[in-house]
Design a protein that fits this description.
Layout: H1 7-10, H2 22-27, H3 34-45, H4 52-60, H5 67-70, H6 78-93, H7 97-106, H8 109-126, E1 135-136, E2 139-140, E3 163-167, H9 169-175, H10 177-189, E4 193-195, H11 205-208, H12 214-228, E5 234-237, H13 240-253, H14 258-267, E6 271-273, H15 274-278, E7 294-297, H16 301-305, H17 311-318, E8 324-325, H18 330-333, H19 343-346, H20 348-365, E9 369-372, H21 375-387, E10 393-396, H22 397-403
Helix pairs in contact: 3-4, 3-6, 9-10, 10-22, 12-14, 20-21
Bound molecules: iron/sulfur cluster (2 copies).
């Protein structure tokens, strides 16, 4: 991949990225397109930009989905160039209050756990009794799912199975613990010996893409230490965005640190998204019950644009005997659902429109369930479906597999 400083000047201005950028497709404003963003960055670097305020606004209006990178004939990573400039701008302007709050919670395991407990008690008790609805990013409070009990730490049973460290990530650990428990049951059924650690730290991706690398470095080091302290055959993820932090972002953070660079290089081949691991299992179908359910699949951006995991989730779904799998129009299956980290908080209007478009495409398939492989997509899809009056449910693939385990 090109150095961030060389990306803006290398743009051919061909416009291929415009056809795939969800923000540009919604706003139709050149300045918000990947090409327009690169032009703005170049202008800033060449001293031709008069308003830094405008540039900050433009750079914020990016889902960091990576679709532009994937479709650029020159392999230019606009999100990487944006992230690097955000790092510079962060030094000057710092975080707004939303991110200051998130930073405190994410960097502290006790605060993460207490905030999740508090959110679960308040939200689960009051969601349905509220006499009115309230906006919550692109969704509304009444369209959000109830929160599940957190995932508890589990130690190895030393039963001879391959050793899997399950890195659950903040969402599946604290908010959607049911997804994590499904992952453990499915892995156990396949004979894996699974461990979950209470010492797992937030991967830091919300802070990384906000340009606050300093806030992430210690967490990242502790995560790398945790995952290299003892032997694991695999480190499995149910969140592709967390996996992207380890596989891409940490390498950039530690590029000048020989110790952590070496540890990461040794760790990297063991890091795997859960459907990528399950797709290798020849006996997966035999341990699942038959179902005639009609389902479709939504590709999370990081699965497609960072991990190149397109075939594996589909292979895993189709391993369920009798399942009626309907493909969405491929271009639409991979279109961003509009969640995008903090994006749905800052740009709820665009995020909501992208969610509704996704709902229309899901409905066209006639599926009863839309499956996905990312907890944030599951939240956005489920909430958008409910908001649009649909009965279709959103599930992580691993939850469906768990439901049909023999
Ligand atoms: S596709 Fe790549 S080279 Fe073409 S305009 Fe977009 S960023 Fe520039
Ligand atoms: S990362 Fe996604 S939203 Fe951002 S410029 Fe590229 S295609 Fe557009």
């Amino acid at each position: 991949m090109k150095e961030a400083k060389d990306i803006p000047a290398s743009c051919l201005k061909c416009g291929f990225c415009l056809n795939v950028c969800p923000v540009y497709k919604e706003l139709k404003e050149e300045i918000t397109s990947p090409r327009g963003k690169l032009r703005q960055i170049k202008a800033l670097k060449e001293g031709e930009l008069t308003s830094e305020k405008m540039l900050r606004k433009v750079l914020k209006n990016c889902l960091m989905c990576g679709a532009c990178f994937k479709n650029c004939p020159s392999s230019l990573s606009t999100p990487f160039a944006i992230q690097k400039l955000r790092e510079e701008l962060f030094q000057k302007y710092g975080h707004d209050f939303v991110k200051r709050g998130m930073k405190f919670v994410m960097n502290n395991n006790k605060a993460r756990s207490l905030s999740a407990l508090w959110a679960r008690i308040v939200f689960n008790n009051f969601r349905d009794s509220l006499p009115f609805d309230l906006p919550a990013g692109a969704l509304t409070v009444k369209n959000m799912p109830l929160l599940a009990a957190p995932l508890k730490a589990v130690d190895f049973k030393n039963n001879g199975g391959k050793k899997v460290f399950y890195y659950a990530g903040c969402v599946d650990k604290y908010l959607f613990g049911d997804t994590g428990r499904s992952a453990v049951r499915v892995l156990n059924k396949l004979g894996y010996d699974v461990m979950i650690s209470k010492d797992e730290k937030c991967c830091g991706i919300p802070m990384i893409i906000s340009g606050d690398i300093k806030a992430v470095k210690e967490n990242a080091k502790e995560n790398i230490e945790l995952l290299t302290r003892q032997y694991y055959d695999y480190v499995v993820f149910t969140c592709p965005t967390c996996l992207t932090a380890f596989k891409e972002k940490y390498f950039d953070i530690f590029k000048d640190d020989p110790v952590y660079k070496r540890k990461l290089t040794e760790l990297e081949p063991k890091l795997i998204e859960i459907t990528q691991l399950l797709a290798r299992e020849k006996n997966l179908g035999q341990m699942l019950k038959e179902t005639g359910l009609k389902v479709t699949y939504h590709d999370p951006c990081h699965m497609v644009n960072s991990l190149n995991a397109v075939k594996e989730p589909r292979a895993v779904i189709n391993a369920i005997p009798g399942i009626n799998y309907v493909e969405m129009n491929p271009e639409r299956a991979a279109a961003c659902c509009g969640s995008g980290g903090f994006y749905h908080v800052y740009f709820p209007g665009i995020s909501s429109k992208l969610g509704s478009k996704k709902v229309d495409n899901i409905k066209k398939t006639g599926a009863e369930i839309v499956l996905t492989a990312c907890p944030a997509c599951k939240l956005q899809l489920g909430g958008s479906l409910k908001k649009n009056g649909s009965e279709i449910k959103a599930m992580h693939i691993i939850e469906l597999l768990d439901k049909y385990l023999k």
